[in-house]
Amino acid sequence: MTNSSQSDSSIIATTEEPGAQMTFFEHLVELRKRIINSLASIVIGAAIGWVIAPHFVNFMVKPMVAALKHAGLNPQLVYSHPAGYLNVLITCSIYIGIVIASPWVLFQIWQFVAPALYKHERSAITGFLFSTVFLFLAGISFGYFVSLPYVLRFLISFQGPVVPLINIDEYFDLILLVLLGLGLVFELPILIFFLTLFGIVTPQFLIKNFRYALLVITVLAAILTPSPDALSMVLFMLVLVALYFVGVGVSWAVVRKKKKREAAEAH
């Protein structure tokens, strides 16, 4: 019986034992290595991005061109500075480089952090990283394909006695704001996960206060889809409501896991 208990304890210890401990200077050397690897991957990604950038710019201006055509205007963007278009290409190259390098950068972060974590913490963080990236990309995709065309058509409809002359620098600032904003909005389940983890909210609290959440969702939908077309606003609201209830599910899973762990520790 004693041998059995000892073997069980050794299995648990092996499972829960974090990686080998490093000294402070070894941590600094490891951190330096991971930072250099990450920066090198971003530089390589930006070099690839420079080749892709002209095609990327053509892809990103399509919603604006479509909005101008829809309004019966000249579907052409301009730049007002001699280096305006070059600046756009350089900026796009850097962003593309970061996107291309992001899996490798995340891997470098993981390699630095993982040795100090327990096994269950490693699996949790792996799932967290993948979920965060997936939801962020889903938000950007939703913004580009669904929200942005309505936003641009709505903004272009305000003409009056003047016609729009769209500067490509200012246009990229606008779409960056919209797409990044939607990418962050789609991180709602991740936010709920952390709030539940720290005991700030519970699934019961989220369901009970859904009417207030729906009010906030309605305001967000009105801001992020400023279009007279009610269908686009309703569609955006439905997506946010779905994300909210995904967050409720995540919250329930976190609370359930906490209760299981507490029950196991009590025994």
Description:
With 267 residues, the chain is mostly helical. It has two domains: 22-185, no CATH class; 187-267, no CATH class. The protein contains ten helices and no strands. The chain has helices at residues 2-16, 24-60, 62-70, 84-113, 119-156, 168-185, 188-197, 203-208, 210-224, 230-266. Helix 3 runs parallel beside helix 5 (119-156) and helix 9 crosses helix 10 (230-266). The model is unreliable at 1-17 (pLDDT under 50).
Write a compact overview of the structure shown.
The protein has helices spanning 2-16, 24-60, 62-70, 84-113, 119-156, 168-185, 188-197, 203-208, 210-224, 230-266. The protein is mainly alpha-helical and 267 residues long. The protein has two domains: 22-185, no CATH class; 187-267, no CATH class.
Features:
disordered N terminus; 267 residues; mainly alpha; 2 domains
Fold blueprint:
Elements: H1 2-16, H2 24-60, H3 62-70, H4 84-113, H5 119-156, H6 168-185, H7 188-197, H8 203-208, H9 210-224, H10 230-266
Helix pairs in contact: 2-4, 3-5, 5-6, 7-10, 9-10
Low-confidence stretches: 1-17
**Which structural class do you get from the secondary structure elements?**
mainly alpha
Helix percent reads: over 70%
Overall form:
flat
Content of β-strand:
under 5%
Alpha carbon gap, first and last residue? 18 Å
The sequence of SSEs as H and E is HHHHHHHHHH
Biggest β-sheet, characterized? none
Q: How many domains comprise the coordinates?
A: 2
By DSSP, the count of extended strands is 0
Q: Count of helices?
A: 10
Radius of gyration: 24 Å
Let me know the average pLDDT: 83
